[in-house]
């Protein structure tokens, strides 16, 4: 059968727009926002339309509104002729499964940006607006473009791909995602289309005219087509112009590393993640209800415990109330009120916050450090309340009514290191220490879950980056790296540093040594200092520092690599992963101290001599800078530095101490390389898994990603062979780049973190 784009006659021979059959008779369910608000919603949308027309009316002659089949076909023909174009969708929600597709935005060079309305409704009658394009027309045109290999440019392509798949049953491919490209160019700035376009492209706009600013939350399906197209068509041209800008800079010649990451990791990953989100995961609602009952009972017990502990201080509380008639304490005192908790801890009990910057803090770290019965009772209550509100009671509410599964959103560039994040719900922060929460998720009937995670992924990356032969050899020999390193540091046999004895019983001393070294290695990679590691190990800072020094003595190549990396980063302002992903750390380039004259002070004003010439400037003389820097560098304590800075201020000079900012950036250096390389490796593995014909044939599909772990759902009959294939693909993802052999553990279960299944 001839394709739609090929079968229709040229535009001149078709009927006029006025002859198009109206779609007004095709009514649909009227949204409550239209029915229930009456004149209010009418006035609101009328006002919004007037504002949009004012702000975007200048584009009226520059944009096209395609309301009939013939003009739509013509436009897609132009796209096919060019071989590329920009594509965007407009919807009434951010749920690609449940949303309504309002319309499609298009642009290709040689044509005006265009909008195809499909499912707008009248905010007066609630019926579909007249003269809109049928789904079938857009579906056929998109399919023919896909068959012809059209290169689509999109912004946040994964969303549009999912919308078009779920609403039109058509699969489109993305050639260039401007959002991901923006993150590869600069991971530290906003990736919003309007912000990027305003910053980098020539435009008539004077501000980032976002949907929220223009339409105030009104669903796009309710926006009149006559003004909606002015916004929608603009998205297409903005995406294209941003692409034109990006390709000048993000290429193999200018940025080989980021380009390779963009073309070979981020772009191929889009359809894999889109499919993963569409598939979703099953929630055991019945088990969730059981957990809800259990944890609500625990919550009541812990709340009662709080009031029991609080009753010990009833006399002190009453005395405080009597002395402070305007107190903010309720009756009973609310455990959920930080203000009231602060009054109890600091005003009534007379405790001192361990954090000088938060003298009345009630956060987890502060309550832990206070370590009194009341703070422990509060922490226990909060832990349970968080489990209920964030997971146990919330997750059943986000089960998709259409699929019966949970479909979260995975953000490919969720962290500056390139690591994934997830939202709605956040599946990556589900606590691993509480296995009951993860057991709420189960495989579909007749299926199993296959969990595959890299063993010691980040320490292996560290061994590769540092090129420490001892560490590399240990991994090649299949050693438990933490126990093996512990044997070097503690100078005892390897077997005495293992967590378990040969007979399977726990070896307490071995476990202690191993855990200490594990904390040290992970602390080094995460940029933690001796103090932070000491707190984790529950030992003195000196003890922690001693172990750290012993580690560096045993493995000098690690220290050498870290020093070399830090030195280079201080010169360039960035670090790179094994695969070339850049992590920009501009704070590394800051001067330790920045000087500025207080406004109005004279140029050569010497705060030490009080000689003041008549000429005025904001520049601080180099001689004075040098003198203050010398004094600051000799200062023994924070207090001494603060005194010097205050002295300078009194004499007309503001000194900004960037030491803390620079130190934070330095701590991120090594972590960014290790974590970023690990993220790249996991993504490469996911691409291989998603493209595996072996797994596709057996209907084994990825459903979750949690840092170094991926979870797939598979028919039980194929579980064993698919588990082996998943492990193989993950291990092989590192070949050619990582000199250290990778290891992947696979487990087959019916529920996440459940008991292994024999297959």
Label the structural class: alpha+beta
- For the terminal residues, how far apart are their CA atoms? 47 Å
Radius of gyration: 31 Å
Shape: globular
Tally of DSSP helical segments: 29
Q: Strand share of the residues?
A: 5-15%
What is the helix content? Answer: 40-55%
Walk across the major sheet and give the strand order.
1-4-3-2-5-6
What CATH calls the topology of the domain at 38-250 is: Nucleotidyltransferase, domain 5
The major sheet is characterized as: 6 strands, mixed
Low-confidence stretches: 6-38, 600-617
What is the level 1 CATH name of the domain at 38-250? Answer: Alpha Beta
Overall CATH architecture of the domain at 38-250:
2-Layer Sandwich
What would you give as the CATH superfamily of the domain at 38-250?
Ribonuclease H-like superfamily/Ribonuclease H
* Number of E-type strands: 19
Mean pLDDT: 88
Describe the protein.
There is one protein chain. The protein is built from 29 helices and 19 strands. The protein is globular and about 80 Å long. Strands 1-4-3-2-5-6 form a 6-stranded mixed sheet, with helices on both faces. A 4-stranded antiparallel sheet has the order 17-18-12-19. A 3-stranded antiparallel sheet has the order 8-7-11, with no helix packed on it. Among the domains are: 38-250, Ribonuclease H-like superfamily/Ribonuclease H (Nucleotidyltransferase, domain 5, 2-Layer Sandwich), CATH 3.30.420; 285-397, Up-down Bundle (Taq DNA Polymerase, Chain T, domain 4), CATH 1.20.1060.10; 470-554, no CATH class; 591-657, no CATH class. Strand 13 and strand 14 (582-584) form a beta hairpin. 49% of the residues lie in helices and 11% in strands. The longest helix is centred in the C-terminal third of the chain and has 32 residues, at 659-690. It has 759 residues and is α+β, with helices and mostly antiparallel strands.
């Amino acid at each position: 059968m001839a394709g739609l784009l090929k079968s229709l006659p040229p535009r001149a021979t078709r009927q006029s727009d006025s002859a198009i059959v109206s779609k007004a008779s095709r009514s649909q369910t009227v949204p409550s926002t239209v029915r229930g608000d009456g004149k209010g919603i009418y006035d609101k949308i009328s006002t919004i339309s007037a504002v949009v027309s004012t702000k975007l009316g200048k584009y009226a002659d520059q944009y096209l509104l395609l309301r009939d089949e013939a003009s739509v076909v013509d436009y897609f023909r132009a796209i096919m002729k060019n071989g590329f174009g920009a594509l965007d969708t407009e919807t009434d929600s951010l749920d690609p499964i449940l949303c309504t597709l309002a319309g499609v935005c298009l642009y290709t060079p040689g044509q005006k940006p265009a909008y195809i309305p499909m499912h707008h409704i009248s905010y007066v009658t609630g019926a579909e607006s007249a003269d809109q394009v049928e789904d079938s027309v857009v579906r056929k045109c998109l399919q023919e473009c896909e068959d012809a290999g059209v290169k689509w440019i999109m912004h946040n392509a994964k969303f549009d791909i999912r919308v078009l798949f779920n609403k039109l049953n058509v699969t489109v491919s993305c050639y260039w995602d401007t959002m991901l490209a923006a993150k590869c160019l600069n991971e530290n700035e906003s990736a919003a289309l309007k912000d990027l376009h305003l910053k980098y492209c020539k435009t008539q706009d004077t501000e980032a005219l976002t949907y929220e600013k223009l339409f105030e939350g009104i669903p796009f399906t309710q926006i009149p087509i006559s003004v909606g197209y002015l916004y929608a068509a603009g998205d297409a041209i903005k995406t294209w112009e941003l692409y034109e800008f990006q390709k000048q800079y993000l290429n193999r010649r200018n940025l080989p590393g980021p380009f390779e990451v963009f073309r070979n990791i981020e772009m191929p990953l889009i359809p894999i993640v889109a499919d993963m989100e569409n598939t979703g995961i099953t929630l055991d609602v019945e088990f969730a209800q059981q957990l809800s009952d259990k944890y609500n009972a625990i919550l009541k017990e812990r709340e009662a415990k709080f009031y029991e502990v609080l009753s010990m201080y009833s006399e002190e509380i009453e005395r405080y109330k009597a002395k402070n008639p305007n107190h903010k304490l309720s009756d009973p005192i609310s455990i959920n009120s930080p203000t009231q908790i602060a009054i109890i801890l600091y005003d009534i009990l007379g405790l001192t916050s361990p954090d000088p910057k938060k003298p009345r803090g009630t956060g987890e770290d502060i309550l832990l450090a206070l370590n009194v019965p009341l703070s422990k009772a509060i922490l226990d209550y909060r832990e349970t309340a968080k489990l209920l509100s964030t997971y146990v009671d919330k997750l059943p509410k986000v089960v998709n009514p259409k699929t019966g599964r949970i479909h979260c959103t995975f953000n490919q560039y969720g962290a500056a290191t390139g690591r994934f994040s997830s939202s709605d719900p956040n599946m990556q922060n589900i606590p691993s220490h509480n296995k009951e929460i993860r057991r709420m998720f189960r495989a579909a009937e007749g299926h199993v879950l296959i969990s595959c995670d890299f063993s010691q992924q980040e320490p292996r990356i560290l061994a590769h980056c540092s090129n420490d032969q001892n560490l590399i050899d240990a991994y090649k020999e299949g050693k438990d790296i933490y126990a093996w390193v512990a044997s070097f540091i503690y100078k005892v046999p390897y077997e005495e540093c293992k967590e378990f004895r040969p007979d399977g019983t726990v070896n307490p001393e071995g476990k202690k040594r191993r855990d200490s070294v594990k904390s040290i290695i992970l602390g080094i990679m995460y940029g933690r200092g001796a103090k932070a590691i000491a707190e984790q190990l529950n030992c003195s800072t000196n003890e922690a520092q001693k172990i750290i020094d012993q580690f560096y003595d045993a493995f000098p190549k690690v220290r050498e690599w870290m020093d070399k990396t830090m030195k280079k980063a201080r010169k360039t302002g960035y670090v790179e992963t094994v695969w070339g992903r850049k992590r920009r750390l501009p704070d590394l380039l800051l001067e330790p101290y920045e000087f500025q004259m207080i406004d109005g002070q004279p140029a050569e004003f010497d705060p030490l001599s009080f000689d003041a010439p008549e000429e005025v400037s904001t520049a601080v003389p180099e001689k004075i800078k040098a003198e203050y820097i010398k004094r600051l560098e000799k200062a023994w304590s924070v207090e001494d530095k603060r005194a010097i800075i205050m002295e300078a201020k009194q004499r007309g000079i503001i000194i900004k101490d960037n030491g803390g900012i620079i130190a934070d950036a330095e701590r991120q250096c090594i972590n960014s390389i290790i974590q970023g390389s690990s993220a790249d490796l996991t993504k490469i593995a996911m691409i291989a898994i998603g493209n595996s014909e072996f797994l596709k044939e057996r209907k084994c599909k990825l459903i979750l990603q949690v840092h170094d772990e991926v979870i797939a759902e598979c028919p039980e009959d194929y579980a064993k062979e698919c588990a082996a294939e998943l492990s193989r693909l993950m291990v092989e993802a590192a070949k050619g780049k990582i000199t250290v052999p990778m290891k992947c553990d696979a487990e087959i279960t019916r529920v996440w973190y459940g008991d292994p299944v024999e297959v």
